[in-house]
Design brief:
Layout (H helix, E strand, L loop, with lengths): L3 H9 L4 H42 L6 E5 L2 E2 L3 E4 L13 E17 L3 E3 L5 E2 L1 E14 L5 E8 L2 E10 L4 E6 L1
Antiparallel strand pairs: 1-2, 1-4, 3-10, 4-7, 4-8, 5-6, 5-7, 8-9, 9-10
């Protein structure tokens, strides 16, 4: 297609040295700009990552509180079948065994009835750290009550109510 003469003529053409220097100089400047550019683009991402990491480590976490009724974890609605009717058709007293485990100091209070620990003292509130077992006793005729469990910023409320149709107490977190 091309003769040897033409090929050798094209190969002999050279760009002026001044033009070559300008192209090389511009290429170096662009390379230097680009190398510093990545750090500028990654800086906001790195700052956001460090902020999230710092918040995860330094913000106080809500402590975990586990509630068990008669050995069963309170995750939904539990039924308590040891309810019976007295002679006046009112619900007799009921005693519910609870166990609560927490990671920090915890305060338990009830709207009705009493909390009874192993020392058999009747209380409407308890303060403890770690794990505690107690009975929540409702007197005859008491068919609804609430318990509040406060641990750090974590607040849990538990309701107990009597279901006439099932003749059972229902225990659930509200």
């Amino acid at each position: 297609m091309f003769s040897e003469k033409q090929i050798s003529a094209y190969r002999s053409i050279r760009a002026p040295e001044e033009l070559r220097e300008r192209v090389v100089c511009k290429a170096r400047k662009n390379a230097e700009k680009g190398s510093g550019n990545w750090a500028i683009r990654l800086a906001p991402i790195a700052a956001a990552f460090l902020l999230i990491l710092g918040l995860a480590f330094f913000l106080p976490q809500n402590p975990l509180v586990s509630v068990f009724v008669d050995g069963n974890a309170l995750t939904g609605t539990l039924e308590w079948e040891s309810a019976s009717r007295g002679p006046e058709r009112s619900v007799t007293a009921v005693s519910l065994p609870f166990e609560i485990q927490s990671e920090e100091e915890t305060v338990i209070s009830v709207s009705r009835g009493f909390l009874i620990t192993e020392d058999d003292a009747l209380r409407t509130s308890l303060t403890f750290d770690g794990e505690i077992a107690f009975r929540w006793e409702l007197r005859q005729g008491e068919t609804e009550a609430q318990m509040e469990i406060s641990c750090g910023k974590n607040l849990r409320r538990i309701a107990i109510s009597y279901d006439d149709a099932q003749n059972k107490f229902l225990i659930k977190e509200i």
